[in-house]
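Quick log. Single chain, no ligands specified.
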Amino acid sequence: MRQEGSYDPNALYDANPYIRRVVDTFKSNLFCRREPGLFEWLFNALMHDGDEYFLLADFESYTATQRQAGETFKDQPSWTRKAILNVARLGKFSSDRAIAEYADEIWHIKAVK
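-> predicted structure:
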């Protein structure tokens, strides 16, 4: 979408009432009654500043996954099993190693010493 220039957050906002409702809360004072306008920058970032990370494009799949996780969490034995397997399958993961690999292989930067 970035290469084609086809991403249009306004089209998603206009076409999906759920997205519109959620995005509109950022320009309301729902989450910040004592600090009006505190989250308006989020609305602007999504709707006027290009939604750099294409958040609205992923919104429906993200919320569907969150709903599924919520349903799975209700089944505690299943949730516990999945949580244990998730940790067991991490293998050699460490944040230091992951950051070093990203720096080297993706960002092509060297550590400052």
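The chain is about 65% helix and 0% strand.
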